[in-house]
Amino acid sequence: MMRGEICPLLCLGVFLHYAYADVFYAVINSRNLDLPCGVDTDTPDIQWKYRTPGSQEYTLILSTNTRSGATRKGQGTHLQSRTRINGRGLRISSVQKGDSGFYRCDQGGRQTEHQLLLVVVSADPPSPLLQSSKVILHCQVEGGSSPRRKWLWPNGTDAQSWGEGDMEMKGVSHTHHGAWKCQIEDNAFEATLNIYVLGIKPLTQPVLRIKEGDTVVLPCQLSASVSNMLSHLSFIRGGWKIESSQHPLLSLRSTGETGLCWNETKLKGIQNISQEKLYTDLSISLNEVSIYPCLILNLSNFSLH
Predict the structure, then answer these.
(1) How many domains, in total, are found in the chain?
(2) What separation in angstroms does the CA of 235 have from each of 9, 59, 238, 239, 252?
(3) Taking every annotated instance into account, which residue ranges of this chain make up the domain Ig-like (predicted)?
């Protein structure tokens, strides 16, 4: 009688193999995430199951027979419409916020469990930013324990030491424009956050010396295309003026959310003023020489000089 009671436990110990695999990281809206089964047996039946963080109960996502190709979807999870079998693995398309948790592959009495953590990156205030403003970058890990992380500059160098993933930057400039990366410690995973900074690039030659009567190009380059910004920022005014005058020499106008263009001018000294949409180049050509500082792009009550 005693032997009959312990036999099922002995059989379970012999045939059930349980293995932990890697921790996987993903960002929201990742196109495809593939989780390998991790076990390989002659049994054609495979089941993929899911449990939420903090729960011990698994729910069937789907099961398949690798020989016949027959697949059955489970009930009660939010994953059915975005998952499918890929070989023996599980493919999740368009990763969503609630997808973090534990995924288990069952095949022939063998089990492999994966943990999925989501990395969420954001900026406060959100991009685009105005030069000289302040921003805080956030990098959060959802779905389990939070490893240390750090931010990398767009050129790949460290912007901070390992920590909790928050970084404050004061006085942003065109040098902060680009793809920032949050790196996870002890893992090759990086999450990218694109930061757009609208400002005027510093002049490489702030003083121009020319002869009277010569034609001169006054350079003025923006750090990013205006057309990418105006859906988020409100244009107030901007243009060129002579330093000693209160009136604009040449002014800008908004074309809605598509960009900026020059207002018409009848001044003979200004050449080649196009009415087409402007992107990053606000330079002008002059026949008559005076002092022309690159003036103001005023967006959302901030002046960019």
Answers:
(1) 3
(2) 73, 52, 8, 12, 10
(3) 35-105, 131-194
